[in-house]
Amino acid sequence: PVLRLLEAQLQDQRREHEEEMEALRNQADLMQEELEKQQQAFLQTLQLSPEVQVELGLQQEITRLTNENLDLKELLEKLEKNEKKLKKQLKIYIKKVQDFEASQTMVPVERRLHERNMQVAVQRKEKDFQGMLEYYKEDEPLLIRNLIT
């Protein structure tokens, strides 16, 4: 049983190796064909006059640059589209954070304002106010934000 298992594994490995070798042979054949085509094109180019060689070289470079330019334009469009999407998401998240902060700060502020209103009512009987507002130092940023909005 162990010998049969090892023989089966060996046959599987041999089959995989042969398949890999066949794929590599095919790849090598394709590369050889491409090399021969390039050599023929190169030999044909060498037979042309120097002016034609320069012109062909320029045409090839123009074609390469045009293709590269199109690829870059496509990439730019994708990036701009992604930037717009991210800006929209950022606006949504900023709004959510502001709403959350407002909901978190409004509840304690409303309680404190209610407590202060009760204190103010008592204090008005005792003090003469000159239009000044009394508040806790830690509530200053919230008070300024509420006054602005």
UniProtKB/TrEMBL annotation:
Q: Which UniProt keywords apply?
A: Coiled coil
- Coiled-coil segments on the chain, per record: 3-96
Q: Does the keyword Coiled coil apply?
A: yes
Q: Indicate what this protein is called per its UniProt record.
A: MYO5B protein
Q: Which organism is it from?
A: Daphoenositta chrysoptera
Q: Which gene encodes it?
A: Myo5b_1
